[in-house]
Amino acid sequence: MLLSLLDLDYETVPINMADMAHKAPEFVALNPLGQVPVLDDDGDIIRDSQAILVYLAAKYGAGGWLPADDPSALGHVSEWLSFSANEMLHGCAVSRALVLFNREGDLEGARSLARRALSVLDSHLAGRDWLVGGSPTVADIANYVYAALVHQGGINPHEFAHVSAWLGRVEALDGYIAMAALPAPN
Amino acid sequence: MLLSLLDLDYETVPINMADMAHKAPEFVALNPLGQVPVLDDDGDIIRDSQAILVYLAAKYGAGGWLPADDPSALGHVSEWLSFSANEMLHGCAVSRALVLFNREGDLEGARSLARRALSVLDSHLAGRDWLVGGSPTVADIANYVYAALVHQGGINPHEFAHVSAWLGRVEALDGYIAMAALPAPN
Question: Which ranges of chain B does DSSP label H, i.e. alpha helix?
């Protein structure tokens, strides 16, 4: 999504995780953790979705997506990157995975974490257009991808009015690409 | 630890988590997640240990602890911040907590995650003094704090020779403060 928002050319390479392609030697050579996603930018290899956002914003964002020269704003962006990787992942992404893939797990527990996380986001977004400062940053993108799909985990995003309005603001950005239009996992 | 390495004055305020002080209204006003640590820098409130490292390095590190103007190095620092918050936390910190606090949980599973994480660190540190570039960054500090205490989870750090040597390099830094000398949790 950030590649598209930054209007960069890119090629996606699907990794067949059902066939354990993410644990194959040629993939582990790119990422010793054996995890997707991995970015290969002319031989500079970056793993981890948060790190990829930080890298792309710092390299191509022209100061607009990562406030690297404002320590306070950068600290707050980091807070929300952690929030995405912890609270949003364990709540929103897990409840979605349990429903979509029909996995065994504590669905009500995950939904309760998701609602708590969405409610923290919602309070923060009351009276704010973006998570940090007056324009979108990687903090918005990192949290958007989980918040936009909570309905697939059985949560109604419209319970959270400020979150809903903010989802709409992200979707109105130039270069926004709907996640349904992203290459499907194989 | 980074406050000390940066030679900054600070005051620590213990939070009595046994009394649920981290969920009390006056603490939740600082951090709606109800989690420690929180930094109050003259009224600028930063939560989350990774974000606090990023903030302090950007504000006080004089370019030495966070390579904010080098997108590739910044991306790699972010990778290792995520690694600390995921692989190191779930392996090293969890096995330590299970042993120290005599908690119920999958100790062998946590130790196995810890050994896998330490072995990724170890391979990366072969032929390198620091995780990213030629001098210490917040990536080293974020991972050090978990790696330095793995013996408390029943793992011998000397199984990982490059990690052991790197722990020594961190401990030789000017302003290094041993974690045993940090204020004890109350």
Answer: 2-5, 25-28, 49-60, 71-83, 94-100, 107-125, 138-147, 161-171
Three-class secondary structure of residue B37 per DSSP: coil
Which domains, ranges and CATH numbers included, belong to chain B? 2-64 (3.40.30.10), 71-171 (1.20.1050.10)
Q: Do B2 and B56 meet the contact criterion of CB atoms below 8 Å apart?
A: yes
In angstroms, the CA B69 to CA B22 distance is 36
pLDDT digit string, tens, across residues B117-167: 999 999 999 999 999 999 999 999 999 999 999 999 999 989 999 999 999
Out of A48, A72, A87, closest to residue B44 by CB: A72
Going A109 to A114 to A115 to A121, the CA torsion angle's sign is: positive
Nearest-5° Cα angle at A143, A140 to A148 = 105
Which of A52, A74, A80, A120 has the most B C-beta neighbours within 10 Å, making it the best mutation to test the interface with B?
A: A74
Sign of CA dihedral B45, A75, B185, A113: positive
ipTM score assigned to the predicted complex? 0.92
- B118's CB contacts (< 8 A; 6+ apart) are B91, B92, B147, B150, B155, B157, B159, B160, B163
Q: For residue A39, give the DSSP letter.
A: E
> What is the overall mean pLDDT for chain B?
92
B80-131 pLDDT per residue, tens: 999 999 999 989 989 998 998 888 899 999 999 999 999 999 999 999 999 9
Nearest-angstrom CA–CA distance, A63 and A66 = 6
- Spacing of C-alpha A154 from chain mean position: 19
Cβ atoms of B127 and B108 closer than 8 Å = no
Q: What is the four-CA torsion angle of A56, A147, B89, A108, rounded to 10 degrees?
A: -160
DSSP string for residues in A44-95: EEEESHHHHHHHHHHHHSTTSS--TT-HHHHHHHHHHHHHIIIIIIIIIIHH
What does the alpha-carbon distance between residue B46 and residue B53 come to, in Å, rounded to a whole number? 10
Residues 102-141 of B with CB under 8 A from A: 120, 123-124
How far is the C-alpha of A1 from the C-alpha of B109, rounded, in Å? 35
The Cα–Cα gap between A80 and A139 comes to: 5
